[in-house]
Amino acid sequence: MALRAVGTTYPNPPVGAIIVKNGTILSRGWTQPGGTPHAEIHAINQIKNKKNIEGAHLYCTLEPCSHYGKTSPCVNKIIELKFSKVIISQLDKNPLVKSKSVKKLRTAGIKVVIKNFGEQVKILNKVFFDSLIDNKPLITLKIASTADGKIATNSHQSKWITNSISRMVGHKFRSLNECMIIGTDTIRKDNPLLDCRLDGLNNRSPDLFVLDRKLTLRKNLKIFSIKNRKIYIFYSDKVKKKIFKLKNIKYIKINEVNNLLNMKSVIKEISKLKYTRILVEGGAKLSASLLNNDLIDEIVWFRASKIMGSDGINAISNLRIDNIDNLKKFKLISTKTLDNDQLSVYKKN
Ligand SMILES: NC(=O)c1ccc[n+]([C@@H]2O[C@H](COP(=O)([O-])OP(=O)(O)OC[C@H]3O[C@@H](n4cnc5c(N)ncnc54)[C@H](OP(=O)(O)O)[C@@H]3O)[C@@H](O)[C@H]2O)c1
After folding, report:
1. Ligand 1: residues within 6 Å at CB?
2. Whose CA is nearest to atom 41 of ligand 1?
3. Nearest alpha carbon to residue 316 among 345, 291, 344
4. Phi-psi category of 320—alpha, beta or left, where left has phi over 0 and alpha has psi -120 to 50?
5. How far is the CA of 249 from the centre of ligand 1 (A)?
6. Which residues are annotated as catalytic?
7. What DSSP element (H or E) covers 133?
8. Which residues contact 279 (CB under 8 A, 6 or more apart)?
9. Mean of the per-residue pLDDT values of the chain
10. Are 215 and 244 in contact (CB under 8 A)?
């Protein structure tokens, strides 16, 4: 249930909930878009006759909330509807909630059990805790390359290196992330929309963060025609230029390091806006910049069974590594064959 909500719930975590009575599932819920209602309330809302809930058990992937935010505390509803037992996979690390809800439920006479539902739930919750406590959103780098690691020809042709199945899975990754970062050159060369074009998931296109250090992007580019997603433009604090105003576009000043926008400051700004999952689709310089700052948490790498040769553009530009001990190390998590392409998923070691 929680997995259904991934990519849609920020600034809240994706949570799943199931209501069970006498061995029968009465209802299931997951955090709704924008984070409201929470999973428990979504599950409760599915049950017409609330009296049936008395004595039921509630399973939650995360401790229910006990504070007032956009919604009133879920524990109040759980107590009011007389659940007899709540089974929680993990306590919330949010200081506003941590163990407080469990205490409140127990004081109200409801039995509470903390029971680990498994690694998948832990990983989901960790993404939320990392962004809440350490201001570190999960950053996924997506690359679509030839077998020899080239992402475009030297004349910047990149459509299409990988096959239609890879591209479809690529769009799924867009739907699982709340926002994307994109380099100026990719915007200029490809003029992309960076939306999710899967049937039924069209409303899950991520918000965009564009690196436009010198504010040189032309306003007739496709991204400037987007109306229903938030767009942020990062530009250098050295630039003194008039900014043009569009309703959904915001500008954020960033300091420079070696004639590039400071990547650590960029991520800090994104985290201040409470995004928890960022997808990066290149280009080569942006990917290198993030790797150089050790900011990439996972890589999803689609490789076509095609060769381009050394005149193509490398997936990742110069990392200035001259000692083998300094290679950027990742752990191979899975590989999948997608017709004649291969998808490898790596996690930071
Ligand atoms: N197959 C794929 O998966 C894929 C995906 C994306 C792109 N591509 C291809 O990649 C090519 C573009 O890649 P690229 O490497 O030339 O450019 P890029 O990474 O898209 O953009 C780099 C530019 O962004 C600006 N920038 C500002 N701060 C930066 C920072 N901290 N780190 C990196 N860049 C920063 C710089 O321009 P300023 O000097 O103007 O600030 C820099 O030259 C295109 O041909 C595109 O088709 C392929």
Report:
1. 143-144, 151-152, 156, 158, 161, 183-186, 189-190, 211, 213-214, 260-261, 263, 281-286, 289, 313, 317
2. 213
3. 291
4. left
5. 20
6. 40
7. helix 119-133
8. 140, 142, 173, 174, 176, 177, 179, 180, 181, 206
9. 95
10. no
Going by CA atoms, what residue is nearest to atom 10 of ligand 1? 283
* Positions of E strands within the chain: 16-21, 24-30, 57-60, 85-88, 111-114, 138-145, 150-152, 179-183, 207-211, 231-236, 249-254, 256-257, 260-261, 277-280, 298-304, 313-314, 330-338, 341-348
Distance 241 CA to ligand 1 centre (A): 22
Q: How confident is the model at residue 303 (pLDDT cuts 50, 70, 90)?
A: very high
Tens of pLDDT along 209-250?
999 999 999 989 999 999 999 999 999 999 987 777 788 899
pLDDT of residue 88: 97
**Nearest atom of ligand 1 to the alpha carbon of 142:** 3
Tens digits of residue pLDDT in 104-156: 999 999 999 999 999 999 999 999 999 999 999 999 999 999 999 999 999 99
Of all protein residues, whose CA lies closest to atom 9 belonging to ligand 1? 283
Ligand 1: nearest atom to the Cα of 216? 40
- The alpha carbon of 154 and the centre of ligand 1 are apart by a number of angstroms equal to 14
Question: What is the sign, positive or negative, of the torsion defined by CA atoms of 105, 11, 345, 166?
Answer: positive
0.85 surpassed by pTM: yes
